[in-house]
Amino acid sequence: MNRFKQRSTILLPTPLVWIEHRPEESTTGGEETFDLVAFSSYKVEERAPYLGETRAWIGDATWKPLNRATVETLVGGKV
Fold this sequence. Notes:
Blueprint: E1 10-11, E2 18-22, E3 33-39, E4 43-50, E5 53-57, E6 61-66, H1 68-75
Antiparallel strand pairs: 1-4, 2-3, 3-6, 4-5
């Protein structure tokens, strides 16, 4: 009997478009900010459990600042 579970591979759409928004009241400088977040890998991997729950991880993140107009172009509407 096989004691090991078969792992399935989950892939997210590449590139995944992840935009972080920080409203002006949540920033130190008092200006809202937008960042495009890119990941080194889009393959979902399970990481060691934390507080009894398995965590999903997709790679190291890098952030690129964006202005509001660029964000609106990316999402296809007003934000």
